[in-house]
Give the backbone structure.
Amino acid sequence: MYKSLIIQMFFLFFSFIHVSDIKAEEQSHDVLVNVEISEWLPYAYQENGEFKGFAYQIARDVFTRAGIAYEFRIKPWARVYDLGLKKENYLICGVGRTPKREKLFNWIGPVAKNIDIYFYKLKSSPIEINNLEEVRKYVVGVERDAYTHDFMVISGFDEAGYHHVSKTDQLLKMLLAGRFELFLLEESRVLKEAEKLSLDPALFEKAYFAFNVTDYMAFSKMTSPALADKVRKAYQELYSEGKISLH
């Protein structure tokens, strides 16, 4: 009788574990990941109601390979970055991997090649920049909470030395309006934003090299490590198969 009871308890215990494992597996399939990014031409943008861009395509292919449901959105960068710091099951589709951010996110893989960031000025401006110290004479436009903003802070610029904007296209418009003398951005975004605004890109000219950076897909730290590992594995598989192209 005692032996029979022990055997029954043994099978009940392992049946419970098996059911728990099944439920955990079912729950993992039920996860919906919020994949978000700011408008980033030509890497992530919306055209006629359809998402497009190199970074968007990578995210789409990776989540399809991983078999994980996701919802893609484009929002202002400051909002995306803030949610990336505190929301569960949240992935930023393109966030620059910098020393300041290294421990803030669970990194998946690059969505773009290493890019160079420059200080830009109006071509008609007589400004000449030969070193970073000379930049301090002017007000610089930066996107709020972007790595360009971080660069200004890390480089020791006073808050009066830079002006925040919430959207990249505002950098071009406000430089033309004389709100500041320089802005920080990569060349491809200057060209695409000028095109979007129907501006001649020749109006803008590189004044001085600032730094380079690589943009990654990255999960919030509140996201399950198992979920991040599954997405990372899918990324690595696609990359090794030559199905991820970085631009």
Observations:
- Helices lie at 2-30, 54-66, 77-86, 132-135, 147-154, 169-176, 187-196, 225-240.
- Residues 1-28 have pLDDT under 50 and may be disordered.
- The chain has eight helices and twelve strands.
- The longest helix spans residues 2-30.
